[in-house]
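Suppose you are handed a protein chain with no further information: no name, no annotation, nothing but its sequence. What can you learn? This example shows the usual starting point.
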Amino acid sequence: MFGHEFLSTKKIISNLEFALSLLKPTERKIIDPDRARGILDEISGQLLNSIPNKKKFGFISKKWYKATFSCSPDSYSQITVEYENGETEKYSIKEAYSDSIFDLGYEIHQLEKKDYNWDSLLFEIRPDGEYSVARKDYVWEEERFSSCPKGKIKKKYCHYKWIPVFHDFSGNFIGIDLDPDQEGSKGQIIIFGSDEENMVVVADNLTEFLDLSIEEMNNNPEEFASDNHVHDVYRKIKKCA
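A reasonable first move is to predict its three-dimensional structure. Written in structure tokens, the prediction is:
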């Protein structure tokens, strides 16, 4: 359909399973705190060993009092070090620890995924080796996403109640919304996906969507025959450009 593929049930299920994997547990808890603490101790130790001493004439010229660092199951940041004189500097993890940090971040996420499912760990470390860790969730969706018309589609990256029907082979979909926002209607047809920050309601149901597509294709065939992405065509039809 206009360069899109009709998804097989296998592909639909795969997409919904991914969306389900992002859900957070209702009651979030640490099931194995001793094992988790052991992994966190290893990460903290590697961070501490990656912070160089600033020596001048054999003496430490600047004393730091706090270092912060964040990591996720598949990435990590530089270490931000704050000094007593008000300066801050950033340091990279020592090369000897780079693979280990990835492995440890992945290991603790897998350990805690079922019962906590955090998105990132934020470390705060002191020079004596004491540290604290905050388990964080990404909260960028409200600012990044929008709905056209407003209030009809929930501002999410993906949702286990958005049923993808057609896809463009690049992670973008036309599908059925079974959990609309306050102004929307259950079963509405929406555009969503990895490149779709401005999501659009194309029709109130699948029948209306197909009728709209046939009508517009007959009335404006040049639009559907152009090089424009068909999502942009629907966005123009619905005045959501």
